[in-house]
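To: structure subgroup
Subject: Chain for Friday's discussion

All,

I'm putting the inputs and outputs inline so they're searchable in the archive.
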Amino acid sequence: MAQRVTLRKRQPYNTKSNRRRVVKTPGGILRYHHIKKLPTAPKCGDCGIKLPGVVALRPRQYATVSKPNKTVNRAYGGSRCGDCVRSRVVRAFLIEEAKVVKRVIKQQKAGGRS
């Protein structure tokens, strides 16, 4: 007959946060090892890919990790990927250029009438 294994936590239900694995200890006793949830890597807010250079941790563990592990040294560091940042910069530049072109055309029309 198989050896009985007792729970080591108070929560008896088979939930996502209460996963466990049966492990045989060096003394030959079967014990439950409670398994923590796996972390997911942070994703880019625009395109949704995993952010390179940012460690994957459970939310509370980010408080104990140093800043270089949580961000990359760039605008929108731990929030957007490099490609999305580049597209944002280019878009902003082109919008500013379009404003300048509109202003120049307006001045030329005003100068041509007088």
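Points worth raising on Friday:
Helices lie at 82-113.
The two ends are 104 Å apart (CA to CA).

D.
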